[in-house]
Every structure is written in structure tokens, then in C-alpha cells.
Amino acid sequence: MLTRERIVATAGALVDAEGLDALSVRRLATELGVQGPSLYNHFPTKADIVDAVADAVVERVDLSVFQEAPWHDALRRWAHAYHAVLTEHPNIVPVLAQGPGRRPAGLAMAEAVFGALVDAGWPPARATHIGALMRYLVTGSALGSFALGFDIDPDLYDRYPHLHNAPRLAAHHEAVDEGAFALGLDLLINGLLAQFEGTRR
Amino acid sequence: MLTRERIVATAGALVDAEGLDALSVRRLATELGVQGPSLYNHFPTKADIVDAVADAVVERVDLSVFQEAPWHDALRRWAHAYHAVLTEHPNIVPVLAQGPGRRPAGLAMAEAVFGALVDAGWPPARATHIGALMRYLVTGSALGSFALGFDIDPDLYDRYPHLHNAPRLAAHHEAVDEGAFALGLDLLINGLLAQFEGTRR
DNA sequence: ACCTGAACACCGTTCAAGT
DNA sequence: ACCTGAACACCGTTCAAGT
């Protein structure tokens, strides 16, 4: 028996294991023991299945911090949590980088972030910029590893002397990408905190 | 007559006008007045055509600033220039977000950025983080408009009270996205500059 | 109400055949 | 050396037919 839940769970596992390109209607149907067209009884298009997979990932990001901590602390902890979830499901990030659209969990997350900033006293226009900035950093870093973006063939770097150690990046890719994300988040939040306190006195 | 140059130029125009999904081997061939398989005399796979289109975009980013200005100034001006080029060719950004790979212009850009940071005195590990951070911000912001990521249907936001103005974001999307990017770049570079001067004394 | 087989209009890629 | 037609193994989606 086919249900939306089973379809989304199987599609999500397929995307995690083999990437977005491996998710085809026929392939997903086979995995569910059914023929391709059957899925159209439960979702209008393949894009809706992909959206549901993406929203299931966002649903796993804890938003309770926004009720517990001051805005800068909550923002930092939420960004780390969001980043951690995306690191576990990197193949769906291209969808999330397009914004919440009509996805309920995406909208709930935007509401929590934007609401916390406005309630803390940030002007709405500034809160929008901060929200955008956070999405840029989190999805930008999750979309493709910086370290793995360099080929491991050493001969490739003969004409780029400063990059002679680039082939070694791949071996430490988690540490490199994690460190860059943490540095960026620190710089952004510390800078915002300084601005915030500057306007308060 | 088919040349790599003509193929890349036509493919780039097609991607700009209709998106990456519209670029198919048959469609591109038709636009070039030729049959699909002909393209395989000039490129081994479609992915190589896409890579060439991406590298042609990166080639348009001016790197001369790194010879003229102190690292923080050069970094800021380069990031703005890169961001401006991507804003003109948003549909190819998903490819650039995967890193330089084996693309010559991508590698030359990485060499210029990393080289300038190391030559200025940043430790290589830190320079790597800074380079990664810049790619996260620039590609993250170019990959999908934050403002256009929200649906314009006002009824959608009934259950998200803080987002009641979200449907109006689309009308000012350039200003919103531009402002968020500029804010992020300022925060990052000012923060890095403070760190740099802190270690110098 | 839900699943199927057949069909439509597409894909990327290979390869023998032409010039 | 370069282009073509035919073919292979795929796509997303529609729809009449079955239960």
C-alpha cells in the first residue's frame, strides 16, 4: 500500500544514498514495489515529492532555542543545528537554497528566525537582511564542500603555485569546511551583536 | 562549422535565457544547426560543455585588484565583482558552487585569492577558511534570491504572523538581496581585519 | 479509490556509415 | 576529420482500462 509518508521516506533515502539525479519516478516506484504512474495518485508532480523530501529535512531542525535564549545565542545555535542537519543530507540542499516556497517546515523556520529578530528589537528590514545572510552562509556551505571542490591530481596545480597543497584538502575536508563555517558564523554574529549594542546606547 | 567557442557561447546564452534544465544536447545542436551527436566531436560529455560555460563566466571576474590593493580591500572588491558577474548569470551558479574542479579560470581565481591572503601574512590554514567563507557567501547569495524564495500568495502566511509582509519581498528583491550580501561582506571583512590587526601587535 | 500498460515527447550517449 | 541516422536505455507525465 502506497502512502505519502512511505513515498517521502523512500525518496529521501534514495536521495541521501545516490543523489537527486538518481531520484526518478520509475526508480522510486520500483523501490516501492509499484509502477511509475501509481505515484501520481499521491503527488501531482515529481517536484512535489522532492519538495516534501526537502521539508522533511527542515522539520528536523530544532526551533525551540528561539524561545529560550537571547537572539544572538539562539541565532548561533540554530545556525549550527541547521548546518548539522544539512551536512547529513547534502544532496537535498539545492532545493532548500531556493527558499521556503510553500513548504510548511520552511515557513515555520523563517517565522521563528525572523520573529525572534524582530521581537528582540531589530528593525524588520534589517531582520530580513540577517535572515537572508544566514541562509546564504548555511546553504552556501552545505551545497558543496569547499575542500572537495579541488581535484586531487597534483599535476593540475603546476601553474598555480600557491595551490600546491590543494590536493591534500580532500583528506581533511570535514575539518576544513567545519572550520570555515564556524569562523563565518562567529564573525557574522559578533559583528551583528556589536551593531546591536551600538544602536542601544 | 562547429567550434568549441561557438558551442560554449550558444550553450551559455541558452542557460542564461532558459536555465540549466533547458540545456539538452539535442536542443543545443538544433540551435547550432546540427544534429545532437555532432557535439561529441568537440566535447567528450555534456558535463564538459556545462563546465566550459561555467568557466567562461568565471573568466569575466577581474582579478587585477589583488595586485593593486591591500588584502582586505582587494577581497572586498573581488567579492563584489564576483557577485555582480553571478547576478548576471544566476543559472550557472549551481556548477560554480561545486568548486573549481579542473576548470582553469576557477583555479586561477582560487590562486589569486589564496595567494593574496598568504602573501599578506595570513597562515595558510586560515587563508583556506577565508577563501571557503567567501565562496559560501558569494555562491550562497547568488544561488537563489532570498526575497524570491517566498511565495507571493498572501493567504499562505495566515499561520505565520511575523511573515505577513513576505509577499511584498518579491517587488524589492534586488534591493533585499543586494543589501543582505553587502551587510554580510562588511561584517566578514571588518571582522577579519580586526583579527588580523589583533595578531600584529 | 488506487494501480497498470501503453503511449507521447523527450533525455545522454554510442557507433557504423557516410563525406 | 567531422557530421548523420539509427539505436539503446533511459526520462516525466497522461490516460484509458482494469479492480
Question: Would you mind describing this structure in some detail?
Answer:
The structure is a homodimer of 201-residue chains. Chain A has 201 residues and is mainly alpha-helical. In chain A, 63% of the residues lie in helices and 0% in strands. Chain A has helices at 4-18, 25-31, 46-58, 65-68, 71-88, 93-96, 104-120, 124-143, 173-200. In chain A, helix 1 packs across helix 3 (46-58), helix 7 crosses helix 8 and helix 8 (124-143) packs antiparallel against helix 9. Chain A binds a DNA duplex (19 and 19 nucleotides) through loops.
- Gyration radius of chain A (Cα, Å) is 20 Å
Shape of chain A: flat
Oligomer status: homodimer
Q: State the helical fraction of chain A.
A: 55-70%
Largest protein interface? A-B, 61 and 62 residues
Amino- and carboxy-terminal Cα gap of chain A:
63 Å
Average pLDDT for all residues of chain A: 97
- Number of helical runs of chain A? 9
Largest sheet of chain A: none
Number of strands of chain A: 0
Structural class of chain A: mainly alpha
User: What ranges of chain A have pLDDT less than 50 throughout 5 or more consecutive residues?
Assistant: none
Task: Determine the strand fraction of chain A and express it as a percent band.
Answer: under 5%
Name the helix and strand elements of chain A from N-terminus to C-terminus, one letter apiece. Answer: HHHHHHHHH
